Amino acid sequence: MKFTKLVAATALLVSAAALAQTMTDGEVRRIDKEQGKVTLRHGPIANLEMPAMTMVFKVSEAKMLDTIREGDKVKFTAAKVNGSITVTSIEAVK
To answer: pTM for this one?
Structure first.
């Protein structure tokens, strides 16, 4: 019985980690380097249970904003960091 519970708990953790790493499609609408923020029009963000919308995000590292431009199509990950929804990775889609 303990082994079955361990397998089930491990499967849940692996599923949660995979869900947290899922990339979301978006489009850069605005970049605010001074504030370390980016406005994205995005699809649903599964790990945050967030529907598609346009919103302003903090970025975890300001240098990420140097890799994108307004109008770029992007893939990104976001997570709740210190109470704020934050972009943790972002890459332009060519």
So the answer is: 0.77
What's the CA angle centered on 64, arms 63 and 70, to 5 degrees?
115
Q: Which tokens in the block code for residue 8?
A: 């089930």
Number of domains comprising the chain: 1
SS3 call for 50: strand
Residues in the chain: 94
Yes or no: say if 58 and 33 are a contact pair by the CB < 8 Å rule: no
Q: What is the mean pLDDT of the chain?
A: 86
Domain hosting 11: range is 2-92
47: CATH: 2.40.50.320
